[in-house]
Design goal:
Keywords: Heme, Iron, Metal-binding, Monooxygenase, Oxidoreductase. Its cofactor is heme. This protein has 17 helices and 12 strands. It has 461 residues and is an alpha+beta fold. The protein starts with 31 loop residues before the first helix and ends with a strand. The structure holds protoporphyrin IX containing FE.
């Protein structure tokens, strides 16, 4: 690590800092990430924000992000939002501590189940869920809400691929999905760094949260018990549950504990559902305003799967333009808007010539993804960036929607396969029109998502 020659003690911070409350003036609790983006534009690629003594150092300058991504000196940090999520995901991969032995075992066991090749085993289940979305849109009348529909799709996909369970989100209300959405909402509200906002949730919401958590755990435990009582040997490709039950840790030879398997399944539902749903919904928003892009996607899917036939597993990687649309969507609106890194050495550290007193920072992805290295029109949707060399090796360091290092997203190939398959299938089947005059409204919870994207869909095939 390069030690800065001169260390300035004072990190840039917002104007109008108050003696006790800190940088509370102009705080936006509804859209905090978008507020950070505005602050980063004003204050630069590293700055601090302090509220009631809670300090957050925000980094988005490419050189500094590259420095904190260096696994030799920095590692993932479980900050307040993660620790709140840990109440749900416990020692599941996403919320496990770096030093936790269960992380190492689960990472080793699950790595192969999330490899690119392993997607062959989930393709049919993904296709089945996409077909249910198409059938539901065929029989519907009036516009569809992009995020709600994508969320049903991604929930069903995880149900099928992780548990071989059909939640049937397009046919019925799913109390289990509602419980997951509620616990995430609760965690999001309670991990706010303004103590007053944290404490307004009240006892009723806390009681509901506890009941929801119990219900979620009980449901997943029952599905695991059923599987153990009746192993599914008829399937040629195992689902994620089967994989975890039958695969020993290659280093120790031990199987994952049942409680840990439950936590992994809940983690997939937390980490893999909203993120993928938001990404597909953002992409649909962009496509609905860009008939030229829609046409290019149709042309490529028609070439690999003529006459409206199902898209085969082997053909998904050939859908290059669709993939570039997904990549560019994740550049502009990375569903997980950032990640936390902490210096491996305890205590204060230095970064960019500043002292970082607590030794940890937040990487603000949508700002990194708009850094000047992306060119003068970094705010514009342009999938060509990924078709030309612009997103090649040099730019890998300014494109991090999947996080970084050892703790980067294990579900990346899964999400990409699902998103490309869904978008290509939808683009081929429908003319899609956005509401005239709609302006993108990005809402923030645990993830970033497009709000109010109402699409008129009419069949073209
Ligand atoms: C577009 C969709 C997705 C995006 C943008 C995304 C993004 C991310 C990011 C940024 C991280 C790193 C977080 C950190 O460092 O704190 C992460 C980790 C993780 N993601 Fe994803 N993710 C997506 C889909 C999925 C899916 C589909 C799954 C599983 C089915 C999944 C499972 C996980 C898990 C288990 C981790 C923790 C990995 C570890 O620490 O070992 N994600 N994801």
């Amino acid at each position: 690590m390069e030690i800065a020659q001169t260390i300035s003690k004072t990190l840039p911070h917002p104007r109008y800092r108050l003696p006790f409350a800190g940088d509370i003036v102009g705080l936006d609790t509804a859209k905090p990430v978008q507020k950070e983006m505005a602050m980063a534009t004003e204050l630069g690629g590293i700055y601090e924000r302090k509220i009631f003594g809670h300090r957050l150092v925000v980094v988005s300058e490419p050189e500094l992000v590259a420095e904190v991504n260096d696994e030799k000196y920095w590692a993932k940090f479980l900050a307040l939002p993660h620790r709140k999520l840990r109440a749900i995901g416990e020692d599941g991969l996403f919320t496990a501590f770096n030093s936790e032995p269960n992380w190492h075992s689960a990472h080793a066991v699950l790595g192969p189940a999330f490899s690119k090749g392993a997607m062959r085993g989930y393709h049919e289940a993904m296709q089945e869920s996409v077909n249910e979305l198409l059938t539901s849109w065929d029989s519907g009348s009036g516009p569809v809400d992009a995020y709600d529909e994508c969320s049903k799709l991604t929930f069903d996909v995880i149900g099928r691929c992780a548990l071989s369970h059909d939640f049937g989100s397009f046919r019925q209300a799913v109390p289990f999905a509602d419980a997951i959405a509620r616990v995430l909402h609760y965690v999001n509200k309670s991990s706010n760094d303004v103590p007053i906002i944290r404490s307004v949730l009240g006892r009723r919401a806390t009681r509901q949260h506890d009941e929801d958590l119990q219900f979620i755990r009980h449901t997943v435990d029952s599905l695991i018990e059923q599987r153990m009582a009746q192993p599914d040997s008829s399937k040629t490709s195992p689902d994620l549950l089967e994989h975890m039950l039958s695969t020993p840790d290659p280093d120790t030879g031990d199987r994952l504990a049942l409680e840990n398997i439950r936590n992994q399944i809940i983690t997939f539902l937390i980490a893999g559902n909203e993120t993928t749903a938001s990404t597909i919904a953002f992409a649909l928003h962009f496509l609905s305003t860009r008939p030229d892009e829609m046409q290019r996607i149709r042309a490529e899917v028609d070439a690999v799967a003529p006459d409206g036939t199902d898209i085969e597993f082997e053909n998904v990687p050939k859908l290059r333009r669709t993939r570039h649309v997904v990549d560019e969507t994740l550049r502009l609106w990375p569903a997980a808007p950032g990640y936390f890194r902490k210096a491996r050495e305890r205590g204060a550290t230095s970064l960019g010539g500043y002292e970082v007193p607590e030794g940890w920072v937040f990487v603000l992805l949508p700002q990194l993804h708009r850094s000047p290295e992306w060119g003068p029109e970094a705010d514009k949707f342009n999938p060509d960036r990924f078709a030309t060399g612009q997103a090649s090796d040099t730019n890998r360091r300014i494109y991090k929607p999947w996080g970084t290092g050892l703790r980067a997203c294990i579900g990346r190939q899964f999400a990409l396969h699902e998103a490309v398959l869904a978008l290509a299938s939808i683009a081929r089947r429908y003319e899609i029109r956005a509401d005239p005059g709609y302006q993108l409204d990005v809402r923030e919870a645990v993830t970033m998502r497009p709000h109010g994207v109402r699409l008129s869909v009419s069949r073209r095939l």
